[in-house]
Amino acid sequence: RRCPRGLRLPRGARASWAGVTAFPPRRYLLYASGDFVKVHSVNTEETLGLLCGHADLVTDIQLNPHNHMQLYSSSLDGTIKLWDFMDGIPIKTFTVGSKLLALYALASAEDSVFVVIPKKGERDTFQLVSVKLTKGAGQDLEGKELSVVLDGVGASPKQIAFGREDSYVVSVKDVNLQVYFFKQKLLNRFSLSTAKTKGGDNRFSCVVCHPKEDCIATGHADGKIRLWRNFHHKKAYTYSALHWHHDIVMDLAYSLEGTRLLSGGVESVLVQWHNESSCQKDFLPRLGSPIECISMSSDGVLCCTLHTDNRITIINSNLRFSRSIQGLIKSRDVKTGLVVDPRTKALVLNGEPGHLQFYSLQSDQQLFSLDIVQRQYIHQAGLKQSDLVKVAFSARGSWLATVEESEEVADPELQLKLWFYSEETQSFALNTRINIPHDNHITDMCFRDMDELGDDSLILVTTGRDCVFKVWVMVGDSDPEAHQSVSWSCDFVGSYHNYQATNCCFSEDGSLLAVSFEETVTVWDSLTWDLKCTFCHPPGNIRNICFGRLTCSKYLIGATDYGFLCCWNLLTCALEWSAHLNVVVLQPDPLSEHIAAVSWLSKESSLFVFKPSEPWPVYIQRNLCKEKILLAAFVPRDEPEMINSEKYLWLRKSQLFFLTDTQELMTLSTKSLEERLTPSSKQLAVEESLPVTPFSVLLGKHRRQQAQEDTDLGKPVVHNRQEQASPAVKELLHTPAHVLPSASFLCTIFINSLLISKENKSAEEVADEVEMESEKAEDESDEEDVTAMEQEDTSPMELLGEMTCKLSKSQEKELRKIRKMDYSWLSAF
Amino acid sequence: MAAYKPVVVQACPKLGERITQDTLYWRGYKTPVQIKEFGAVNKIDFSPVPPYNYAVTASSRIHIYGRYSHEPIKTFSRFRDAAYCATYRDDGRLLVAGSEDRSISLFDVSGKAPLRQFEGHTKPVHLVGFLSDKYRIFSGGDDYSSKLWDIPSATEIISYSEHTDYVRCGCASKVNADVFITGSYDHTVKLFDARTKSSVMTIEHGHPVESVLLFPSGGLLVSAGGRYVKVWDVLKGGQLLVSLKNHHKTVTCLCLNSSGQRLLSGSLDRHVKIYSTTSYKVVHSFNYATSILSLALSPEDETIVVGMTNGVLNVKHRKPEEKNESSQKKRQPAYRTYVKGKSYMPKQEDFCVSKPVKRVLRKYDKLLRSFQSSKALDAVLEPPIMLHTPEVTVAVMQELHRRGTLRSALAGRDEKQVNLLLTFVARRVIEPRFTPVLVIVADMITDIYQPVVGQSAIVDKQFLKLQQAIGKEIDYQEELLEVLGMMDTLFATFIKKSDMCLEENKSNGVTEIIETNRNY
């Protein structure tokens, strides 16, 4: 059985590391990324290998001090693995049992390593233990011989350091520093005063030891670096302070000889201190984002910094930026949504502050980063940064529209920028900048996608909380000597009853524009900008809208705050169907009719894929993941994939990606677990056991069991007006008066709705099931189906006062009825 | 690692007239010379040969002016009544003029008395000219007739009486010696061929024709009358090519520039408009003191002469071409200093050390880079920056505000500096592009310096000025809103009743657009 799972793409969750091996001219950079360890060649800048085998997050890696081609790694799954990282083969696996949070391998201790494990029985206390690595044949070995070295240590690998010639170990936690001398078996404790000094709190954040002298450098939360000496004596110890950082010192590192000390923090500046004096220091500023880790290579030539945004920077020993390794940048908040660049098929989202990153899914690499805000980013708490909030591409990817706003709520400094892709420079160039395009936040933005008409017909629509939507068009400049030939300007401003505009969407052919204003969806003609019709499904504001595609282009889908998914028919201007579903994400596939809806209910996200023309889903995946899915995107495949399973036919042309609130990027795989794991699988299954999809159950089972399945499904897709009579009245009462037709129209419907019809009941209940049933039940159910259809068809139409084609339709139904009767009679033979 | 990003200064596109090649060209004239004539100047004609003298017909005299003389170098004054339409022959040696006394006089430009007198018109003659074979003269008079004269014998060759009103303008074809056209107050332009007995073509202009012009190629005909200038294709049988309506009073004269690329028209509305003859768009326009009657352009566009109703002759000479010699004189390093070492191709074993590109930062950027906010603000408050590029000052203020250090940068200033700041704010706060930032700045200044108000007369005065400026702006905005309201009602009246609800939106749209236009 094939089962799809949410797959975690490799994103360097926490790259802790062992730096660089000393084999000039060949240098390798090893870093832990999620559940893997990656081997990266510094010279050729490519990823050479992936060490996979851990079942959980890799917490620390250390080179084997006795063999520089081997690597120890520790993981939360309780194992220590010894690797030959050149070949990517695990040599040995030691099972310790409890979670391993940090790992230290010493040159002096040949048969043991030190690990940090949580103390048994107590929460949030950790101890440093040495693990005896048993020597045995076999690959899987036990590492159960533990001896506690230090108690009450910090959980981070940065909070423990081993001193000169491994003669002592230092651990810092909160305001306490403890030094344990192995030979003397002496434990010295020092503590700073807990009283808050004027600089803020002086808790320890990290510690390193001088490689040649008895000196300990500690970083503090208030930005100070303290150098401790003479700590053999409990009383006569001394310390001096170096102060440059204005906020927490994230990590420290000594150079090979200990003459230089490197420090980094949230300022994203690498500071180099010479000779332990605060007057001599060098800076490497503007590294992009806060520095989390600093690591020196074992030959002291290179230095690497790990940044909070999932990036590694390699720096020369003379403090020159060398190169950087970058995956998908984690930004604080992905406001732009997941957008697919039509040109490169790359995923586009917020990157560094003020930048837009183009992330290639195939190669797990950042293609490039486009500076949108073009301002110096200053890291300081409480500063109102301006950031990118909306991104839209034109159909061919030649135009890019971006909206940036500052974080201020009252007066956002809005800027709408339009970028043109220049073929010569192969990058986007700023074409038009519009200051204050709206008086309030911009809620949505979309281009009119019209491939066949070319770029001249491009239209951009923005909706804002200032209750209007604006239409921007390209204006050609007739003057041939002008600097650029086109620019953008506002063409039309539309509003609807002073409601806030929340979403906008163009139909596939570009002729219609749907704009949602709080509870109402308005449909506008994109040529004349006339209001064509309005749809409403009270109560609840419209959360998402989208048009159907291809064969379903006559439908408009909307999701409301109160958990309704509605489908309106644009030809009849009537509600086609609606379902009770708390839709968080509504994403149409650009290459097929399918629309993916992700719901969030009872702490789990579920995926529903459906066609607008049919009220039942094509595919259901309950419990997709535990995190809330915030965004989704269909990425077109380069070539349609061959998919055997009927279930995944909708994934043939494009692939679905999700971004959860924990910033995990996930995809839905069509291959089974085994198939995925056989190749050097870069992906990892999230969960093992999944319940049988209700959809398959639904298909296989008989009609009799329908009631049970309904409960199984939670809230199944319901047909409009399932209960007789009352919905018409309900709709009549709930619909705002301005949308309703005149009372004379409604009168007959109202009276009709009060009449009780008998044959209705059973028919409507089964309506959705019937068509999916095998043909055996056709003779009886079809007739019912027809009656049900008749009911459905006429009433919404009447509601909106369109009674033009009713007569012919009913005639047609009569004919069909007769035909089907005939058929049933035949089948009796 | 990113380099320091300089402060983005928001450039605002300059509103109003766009500088094009044409504006530069037509602005390249010196301040005009004004010469007073005896009456309204009805015709100016340049001699086609160097030194390009020009004949000015005004009242009963014809004055010949040299290129740079402000006094007439010659005068023909033997007219009993007003003279009209003094025109040079192609070789510049003969001059012909009509007269109120119904006669046509032919002058040698070197002589004084007329060589020939052509009598035959029964009414004043407003139009005379040479055909391009040099031996014939055509004329048009207020007796509705146009005649052709032979110069040697001073006899009438042919007379056409096809117009039904005064014939006031005309011109001869340069490519065909037999073809000439006349324009009349009967709203028509007629094309005559001397070989036929009647007109060849009649073009209905629609207004009394004041001036006609044939393009050098002879294919296009321009007529001016009423407020219109119309261009006709003669070869297509007089098809209207384009109708230009750029004047708001009668167009009186037309003229082509030397290259034939630009068409000039003068009008009673005191403007001369210059059109491109490819797009027929106005590319430039001149403004004069009074209504214009006649207009001429010397070869090579050296001089523009405009005659006006009050008898003033306005002469504009072209500025001499600026010579760039002075800048060229500066001695520059020899060529070889530039190519020194550039031609060296690195060998494979060479280790290349690239010279870092030096980035030039403005002073305020350097200060901002090192977080010296107060000094950065000082740097942009220097008069040259503050006066000429206020957008730089405002951009730095905005950047400081973004960094949260604007308040500290503004604080702690002495009387002189506060005065400077307030002057700037009071002057610029009403400019829409600066308002959002400067309102914040003004708020902060009042906040910071509120305790010391009253201690300095200068600062107090500036505060009052600021208050006045803001008050004035508020009044202005209110007035604008009133106008918008009025426009809304006007738009509402245009709207049909049937689709009221839709159009309501539209009218909103229109006003919104106007508003946005105002904002940016």
UniProtKB/TrEMBL annotation, chain A:
Q: Which portions of the sequence form the region Disordered? A: 762-801
BP-aspect Gene Ontology terms? positive regulation of rRNA processing; positive regulation of transcription by RNA polymerase I; rRNA processing
Q: Name one GO molecular function term.
A: RNA binding
Q: What InterPro entries has UniProt attached to this entry? A: Beta-prop_WDR75_2nd, WD40/YVTN_repeat-like_dom_sf, WD40_repeat_dom_sf, WD40_rpt, WDR75
Q: Where in the cell is it found?
A: Nucleus, Nucleolus
Q: What GO terms fall under cellular component here? A: small-subunit processome
Tell me, what's a Pfam family for it? Beta-prop_WDR75_1st
Which segments does the entry list as coiled coil? Answer: none
Question: What keywords were assigned to this record?
Answer: Nucleus, Repeat, Ribosome biogenesis, rRNA processing, Transcription, WD repeat
Comp. bias (Acidic residues): 765-795
Q: The WD repeat-containing protein 75 second beta-propeller domain covers which part of the protein? A: 338-663
The primary location reported for this protein is nucleus
State the WD repeat positions: 51-93
- Tell me where on the tree of life, at the top rank, the source sits: Eukaryota
Q: Which SUPFAM superfamilies match?
A: WD40 repeat-like
What is this protein's name? WDR75 protein
TrEMBL record, chain B:
Localized where?
A: Nucleus, Nucleolus
**One GO cellular component term:** nucleolus
Gene Ontology biological-process annotations: positive regulation of transcription by RNA polymerase I; rRNA processing
What are the boundaries of the signal sequence?
none
What domain of life is recorded for the organism? Eukaryota
InterPro entries according to UniProt: U3_snoRNA-assocProt_15_C (IPR018983), WD40/YVTN_repeat-like_dom_sf (IPR015943), WD40_repeat_CS (IPR019775), WD40_repeat_dom_sf (IPR036322), WD40_rpt (IPR001680)
Residue spans of the WD repeats: 118-159, 244-285
Per its database record, what is this protein's job?
Ribosome biogenesis factor. Involved in nucleolar processing of pre-18S ribosomal RNA. Required for optimal pre-ribosomal RNA transcription by RNA polymerase I. Part of the small subunit (SSU) processome, first precursor of the small eukaryotic ribosomal subunit. During the assembly of the SSU processome in the nucleolus, many ribosome biogenesis factors, an RNA chaperone and ribosomal proteins associate with the nascent pre-rRNA and work in concert to generate RNA folding, modifications, rearrangements and cleavage as well as targeted degradation of pre-ribosomal RNA by the RNA exosome.
* Protein name stated in the entry: U3 small nucleolar RNA-associated protein 15 homolog
Q: Which organism is it from?
A: Agelaius phoeniceus
